[in-house]
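@channel sequence for tomorrow's demo:
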Amino acid sequence: MVGEASTVTEAISRIAATLPDVVLLDVHMPDGGGRAVLEAVRRAHPEVRFLALSVSDAAEDVIGLIRAGARGYVTKTISPEELATAIRRVADGDAVFSPRLAGFVLDSFAARPDAPVADPELDQLTNREREVLRLLARGYAYKEIAKELFISIKTVETHVSNVLRKLQMSNRYELSRWAADRRLV
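structure tokens (generated this afternoon):
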């Protein structure tokens, strides 16, 4: 291990300074998320490999990171031993996914190989806002969302407010219906 970072700017700087073989990338880090780190580093240092780590196993999160250049995607439920193996496999050039996540990737490319997975409304939301939206649409209370995502209730309220504003909706029921229509639930 050559370092760690807690913000996008710090991560980009440390990766450029150390050029690790593999970056274990927290998908939902502050200031733009792991995808911002991946995209910035890949332009300057395409030899650096990325393994995405997230609490989310949502298809759009997985597909977005893989399209951006991650060599694998694992969820935070992975055991320490499995994580160490996944990092070594990515370093060796393999792609690493759980069977369920691999299915998302294969389905995405098999169904419409040339079509980008894009939804202009959904694309304006951060990964964390999508996670909050997904849990909200599943009927979780703010307190339950906070516990599930390891954030404060106030932070959940802020994310919900941002999602409502960005999608120009007025309440959580509209959001739930919108998320269900897009199969985010």
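heads up for whoever presents: The radius of gyration is 17 Å.
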